[in-house]
């Protein structure tokens, strides 16, 4: 089995075994897609806060921050693009974002791990900005996985919640 196959296998496992059960247990008034889009928006805001913090603290001039601003613009374009295809995601049908984001999901994890490393090893004067960036990357990963979850029909969500409740009563969880 190649490295790419193992990465895809891990991605599917993470999506199906961690995020999909979480998405199935969310209340119906808060679907996983809406929560994931909120996470994406939060990641954009935290990333902007990181860039602004670096400029305000005085460790980066505006011209030096231009690369970071361009990366932030890519994140904003990603958010707008996902928001435009949002009507394609319908309950009871396959989520087209699951396939569309299959390359982006596993790619976002190493970036989040590296951002955490940067935040943990940052010099004191960069700490605040890099922790904003670390948090933005973690929220981005959670958001992209929630966006990729299948939207179950309303009846399925109730039976999944009831099954989960029975398992708790029996001491299974």
From TrEMBL:
Keywords: Membrane, Transmembrane, Transmembrane helix. The chain crosses the membrane at residues 32-59, 65-85, 97-116, 128-147. The keyword Transmembrane applies. This is Uncharacterized protein.
